[in-house]
Amino acid sequence: xxxxxxxxxxxxxxxxxxxxxxxxxxxxxxxxxxxxxxxxxxxxxxxxxxxxxxxxxxxxxxxxxxxxxxxxxxxxxxxxxxxxxxxxxxx
Amino acid sequence: xxxxxxxxxxxxxxxxxxxxxxxxxxxxxxxxxxxxxxxxxxxxxxxxxxxxxxxxxxxxxxxxxxxxxxxxxxxxxxxxxxxxxxxxxxxxxxxxxxxxxxxxxxxxxxxxxxxxxxxxxxxxxxxxxxxxxxxxxxxxxxxxxxxxxxxxxxxxxxxxxxxx
Lengths: 91, 164
Prior knowledge:
The structure holds two protein chains of two kinds. Chain A starts with 5 loop residues before the first helix and ends in a 10-residue tail after the last helix. Chain A has helices spanning 6-31, 50-57, 61-81. Chain A is rod-shaped, with a radius of gyration of 33 Å. Chain A is mainly α. Chain A has three helices and no strands. By secondary structure, chain B is α+β, with helices and mostly antiparallel strands. Chain B has a single domain (8-163), classed as Beta Polymerase, domain 2, CATH 3.30.460. Chain B has seven helices and nine strands. Chain B has helices spanning 8-17, 26-32, 50-62, 79-83, 108-111, 131-141, 144-163, and strands at residues 22-25, 41-46, 66-67, 87-92, 95-100, 102-103, 106-107, 115-120, 124-129. Chain B has a five-stranded mixed sheet. Chain B has a two-stranded antiparallel ribbon with strand order 6-7. A two-stranded antiparallel sheet of chain B has the order 8-9. In chain B, helix 6 packs antiparallel against helix 7. The longest helix of chain B has 20 residues, at 144-163. Chain A binds chain B through residues 44, 46-50, 52-57, 59, 61-62, 64-69, 71-73, 75-77, 80, 89-91, and chain B through 1-9, 28, 31-32, 34-36, 38-41, 68, 72, 91, 95-96, 118, 120-121, 151-152, 155-156, 158-160, 163.
């Protein structure tokens, strides 16, 4: 290494180390297992059940309407079975 | 045995058979957008031309409709009730059906640019308010029942945006 100063040698070594580190980090990034996504919250801050909204959004508009009709009929059945609500025949 | 049968779809099919020009608003609109809510009536804004009111009256006759009013009177649908801005409330064999001439001061023509068309099974197409406008209309209405629905509608909108 005649003619190469100590400082230059140090700089060259540092560059090689830096490059190696950069390469190793890249390999690590490529081979690392993907992190699972952050779990989605089940409720909003104001208490809305977000799981129910996500379920509704997974349905087609036809399916949403069908569920609504079934649910409305069931709620009406409950109301009809409750003697204290017998006065009103209108929904 | 339930007294009322709910088939919003069958009502919409009857309106479609009579070629009624209308926009679905209210709870059914919210449900079509994916909001997990329950409603007991189908709310519509209709075009208030004489021809369209003729078509509505034809559909109401098919649905054996009568005005929903206290006292249990079975008053047949009146044309004048559909000509104004206010609500015309009907009971039909398939559930309650409410027509509005205007909602938050906006009529059919003004709301039309803020709608989306949904293609349902059986080649049934319905026009509903877009979710942003539904939220706006409910906010402006300011009634307790409208305000109560707003948090669910807003979260539904947020989830839809996150999903997309």
